[in-house]
Structure formats: C-alpha cells, structure tokens
Amino acid sequence: MTKQIIFRGGTGQAKMLRESLDNKIKLAAIFEQNKDIKSPFNDIDIYYGDEGFNTWYKKFFIENETYFAVAIGGDNGKDRVVIHHKLMSWGLRPFSIIDKSAYISRNCKLGVGCQVLPQSAICTEVEIGIQTIINTGATVDHECKLGKGVHICPGAHLAGLVTVEDYATIYTGATILPRVTVGEGAVIGAGAVVIKDVKPYTLVVGNPAREVKMIK
C-alpha cells in the first residue's frame, strides 16, 4: 500500500513540498484554518478548521500509514512545532521532505519533520531540530547546530560552527559568520551580514547587522 501524507498549510510552501516529495508517498489532503485559501492543486481536496480535519480523519486516516508535513514557512517556527505535536497526538507521523537535488552530509543529524529544499546544502556534523526548514539554495556549513522550528530562508548562508536557537528565522540572502549564536526567536533581515551574537527575540538588519527592535 502506498503511504499517504497530508499537508497542514495550503500556500506556496505546499507547492514547494509537493515538488520535492518522494514518489513512494501520495499527497492525500490539505488542511487550512483560513477559508479564503483555495487548494493549490486541482487534484487535492482542502479541508478547513478542526471540523474539516475531523471529517477527513474519520474517513481516510490509516494507522501507521498516514504522515504529515507542516507547510508553513516564514517566521512561524513555533506554530510548526505546536502543529507537529498536535498531529502526532492524533496518530499521524511526521515526514521529512528532502529534495533530490539537495546535498546532505552523511554524518549530520536531521530532526523529524524537517524540510530540505532544492539546491540547498547541509555539511558535515550539522545538527538540526524538528520542523526546521532549509529552504531553496540555502547552505549550512560544518558543525552548525540549529534548534527546532528554525527557518533558513532561500539563499541564506551559515558559516561553520554557527548556533541558531529555537524558532529563529534567517531571511533571504542573509549571511551568518563563523561561531555566531542567533538567539531563540530572533529574526535576521534579508541580506543582513551578522558578525556577532544576536540576542533572543530581536530583529537585526543591515551590513554589518544591527539590532532595530525587540520582537514580542
């Protein structure tokens, strides 16, 4: 029997993830809270809210054969982790989606439910937490440690020995220099060059990156 997977989230991230899916697993449904969002795929139904999930679950859930991916990008890492645990409590299993064009070192450690998208690279002795996204063309160099719910956005680059704590977001084209720590929930603006540690829940921008505000 072909395994089935559901996506929580029906916007651009869902489109990216479907393209990177292994052909041994079939996309079965999409779930959304926002009823204004339509299914991005003509052949896949979309369900809304808890009511929609319950309706689908009663009809189509297959124990030990139903997986999920949280197709929510941006700086929503904490939401991805919360949804991860909620779906697991219903018996669904997290699925890591890794594009065939990505490079992943043989001795790195990837948390369950991670997403490694086209042309990205994860180098030797990297550790990555659950529900972390390494997006298109992003690179993570040797011995970096990334927490849960992190998002390394398209074209962002981490040098060696960088630590990125839980829920932090490194936006498009940013560069983090060696041995820097990016604190929990911090946001690195697009194109920023980070040369020193970033405090938790702060936004930094520019070259060199500077703190502009705290994030609630």
UniProtKB/TrEMBL annotation:
<dbReference type="InterPro" id="IPR001451">
    <property type="entry name" value="Hexapep"/>
</dbReference>
<keyword id="KW-0012">Acyltransferase</keyword>
<feature type="active site" description="Proton acceptor">
    <location>
        <position position="142"/>
    </location>
</feature>
<dbReference type="InterPro" id="IPR020019">
    <property type="entry name" value="AcTrfase_PglD-like"/>
</dbReference>
<feature type="binding site">
    <location>
        <position position="73"/>
    </location>
    <ligand>
        <name>substrate</name>
    </ligand>
</feature>
<dbReference type="GO" id="GO:0016746">
    <property type="term" value="F:acyltransferase activity"/>
</dbReference>
<feature type="binding site">
    <location>
        <position position="151"/>
    </location>
    <ligand>
        <name>acetyl-CoA</name>
    </ligand>
</feature>
<dbReference type="InterPro" id="IPR050179">
    <property type="entry name" value="Trans_hexapeptide_repeat"/>
</dbReference>
<dbReference type="InterPro" id="IPR011004">
    <property type="entry name" value="Trimer_LpxA-like_sf"/>
</dbReference>
<feature type="site" description="Increases basicity of active site His">
    <location>
        <position position="143"/>
    </location>
</feature>
<dbReference type="Pfam" id="PF00132">
    <property type="entry name" value="Hexapep"/>
</dbReference>
<keyword id="KW-0808">Transferase</keyword>
<protein>
    <submittedName>
        <fullName>Putative acetyltransferase EpsM</fullName>
        <ecNumber>2.3.1.-</ecNumber>
    </submittedName>
</protein>
